[in-house]
Amino acid sequence: MTTTPPRPAVEIRDLHKSFGPLKVLKGIDFEVGQGEVVCVIGPSGSGKSTLLRCVDLLEEPTAGKIWVNGVEMTDPDVEIDAVRRGIGMVFQSFNLFPHLTVLNNLTIAQRRVLRRGRAEAERIARANLERVGLTDKADAFPAQLSGGQQQRAAIARSLSMEPKLMLFDEPTSALDPELVGDVLTVMRKLAEDGMTMMVVTHEMAFARDVADRVVFMDGGVVVEQGPPQEVLGAPKHERTRAFLSRVLDPTHVAQLGAPDQSPGASD
Amino acid sequence: MKLRRRQRERLSLGLQYLVFIAIIATVLVAADWDRLADAFFRVDIIKSMFPTIITVALRNTILYTLGAFAFGLVFGTILALMRLSRVAPYRWVATAYIELFRGLPALLVLFLVGYGIPIAFPEREIPGGVFGSIAIGLGLTAAAYMAETIRAGIQAVPKGQMEAARTLGMSHFTAMRTIVIPQAFRIVIPPLTNELILLTKDSSLAYVLGVTAQTIEITKFGRDMLNDRVNATPLLVAGLAYLVITLPLSQVVRRLELRYAKAR
Question: What sections of the sequence does the record tag as coiled-coil (chain A) (predicted)?
Answer without folding.
Answer: none
